[in-house]
Amino acid sequence: MPAWPDRPFLVGRDGAVALTYAELGARLAAREHRPVLRPASTSEALAGLVVAMVRQAPLRLVDGDFSSEELAKLGVTEAELAATAGLPGAAPASLAEAQERARSGSGFALSLYTSGSTGLPKLVTHRRETLARTLREGPRHADDIWALAYNPTHIAGIQVALQAFANGNPLVDVFGLDRAAVQEQLARRSVTHLSATPTFYRLLLPLESPLPSIRSLTLGGERSDPDLLARLRAAFPTARLHNLYASTEAGTLLVADGELFGIHPAVEGKVRIEDGQLLVSRQLLATFEGRVVEGDWYPTGDRVEVVSENPLRFRILGRTGDFINVGGAKVDPAEVEDALRAFPGISEARVFGRANSVVGTLLCAEYTSPSTLAEPDIRAHLASRLQPHKVPRLFKRVDSLAKTRTGKLSRHA
């Protein structure tokens, strides 16, 4: 095998090879890199990531779709984006040497902007330890083929890319593609491992034809639900299914085979539940810029429901900040969305609040459906399952739902 094999590292959204391992080796041989990178493409983002990790250099990744106004608020200057820095020492002579350097080095630091949907994004800096907490390496992973269904400048996409690089696997970029194109890419490239948000999976199903090459499905980034898990098991009967809990601040922390989570021995004593909220020990956190974590425990903002105490099992309910205040009563949009998806003909749903000068906040719902549905029937369906204040006042059928930069459902009008 050549030192740098000429096989794909990244297959682009158009189906063509965008970056090979041999080309990655040539990038690593260069004497300079860009410490602050606003990538114009997925291949540029991933090449910059690998160069920084292998050559043990700091890297700050900036979303390619940040506007000039957002960049100014974040303090990112054009001079920083254009600057280059030298890389000391010799370049790795082979892929195996590059993987070993990435595995054992301690000089790498990756800074990412949080993907919160409100307020100014915060800068969070990770070391390899937090990024590689759940990395799996070894000969049994040599034939894995990964789909990249996340934004490559956010932590979930980063972790998928590092998993693929650690084993010399190809990545197939499907982020942002429509349902038919995703299924075509998965089938054409015989993808074996797919990690994505529940929103992605809801848009992916139903399958036009079976995808027998898929061996592993991972859900993360959002709350899942039993109905989606059941549909995935039916669509991919031979695939292993994993439900992840991760955050930009801490990386991947919890893994479950279904809806219910437990605390893995590796983080025993470092994750706890208090007043219905998940708390994480500061020992597991990355470094925050301009933000102090007070005390030993960091409140994640994620609400949980404890199902059993011994053994401890709990489900993730959603973000505390997602609640919508309707006439003084709090509404969980995820609960309403679950009820909407149970209505025959609705494929996906999004519930959000819209400011109103008369009543304060109107509860609104958008949904996707292959056909026009009768609004009175939807209202009657919801009224039979929800309290009156949880039934949206406005409904709208749309072709697609608004999403955040990371591919999650947007909670804002």
Short description:
The chain is an alpha/beta fold and 413 residues long. Helix content is 25%, strand content 28%. It has two domains: 8-299, ANL, N-terminal domain (Rossmann fold), CATH 3.40.50; 323-397, 2-Layer Sandwich (GMP Synthetase, Chain A, domain 3), CATH 3.30.300.30.
Molecular structure report:
The protein has 413 residues and is of the alpha/beta class. The protein folds into 2 domains: 8-299, Rossmann fold (3-Layer(aba) Sandwich), CATH 3.40.50; 323-397, ANL, C-terminal domain (GMP Synthetase, Chain A, domain 3, 2-Layer Sandwich), CATH 3.30.300. The protein has 12 helices and 24 strands. The strands form 6 sheets. It has an 8-stranded mixed beta sheet with strand order 2-1-10-9-11-12-13-14, sandwiched between helices. Strands 4-5-7-8-17 form a 5-stranded mixed beta sheet.
